[in-house]
Amino acid sequence: MEKPEVVLSGSCMCGAVTYTSSTLPREMGNCHCLTCRKLAGAPFLTFADFPTSSITWTSGSSSLKKTRYSDIAERAHCPNCGSPIYMVYDHQKESIGIAAGTIDEGSVKGKLPKTGHHIFLEEKAGWYDLPDDETGRYAKFRAPFQERLDASKKK
Ligand SMILES: [Zn+2]
Ligand SMILES: [Zn+2]
Deepest of 15, 50, 74, 148, by most Cβ within 10 A of its Cβ? Predict the structure, then answer.
């Protein structure tokens, strides 16, 4: 079988963890929840949403440090440099939120989507003012996501 075309690659700060993707992200969004803020050491963490099947781990995947800070999702970090790498929700494992800062922009064939929404603004850092970027703004999750999450818990 022919290898899928690589449209972008990414890496953690130290380079131990690398990946490629066969598709561009479907969308990008900023999460302002306290967990993301602590992990990023910044006012938010930006996630690029990909089909999980698009991502190929080219190094370091077996050493990824997996963590759970809630009962709905798993996150992964580079064990060496600590860079956040991804987050996957238990109820939609077919999607992966790659920490967008790990995307190596020089590798991108095509155009990355601009950040389209801000979520968990109820936990936003008081010292950070949102730019006037005309993107969607949500206190928690976006409604369709919350509905899927709620439905998965009722099962
Ligand atoms: Zn690293
Ligand atoms: Zn978050």
Answer: 50
Give tens-digit pLDDT for 97-132: 999 999 999 999 999 999 999 999 999 999 999 999
Which one of the ligands is nearest to 45 CA? 2
Helices (H), the chain: 34-40, 143-154
Whole-number Å distance, alpha carbon 29 to ligand 1 midpoint, is 23
Q: How far is CA 14 from CA 56, 80, 102, 127, 137, in A?
A: 18, 7, 11, 30, 33
71 C-alpha vs ligand 2 centroid, how far in Å?
A: 13
Which contiguous run of DSSP H or E holds residue 73?
A: strand 73-77
Among all bound ligands, the one having the nearest atom to the CA of 99 is 2
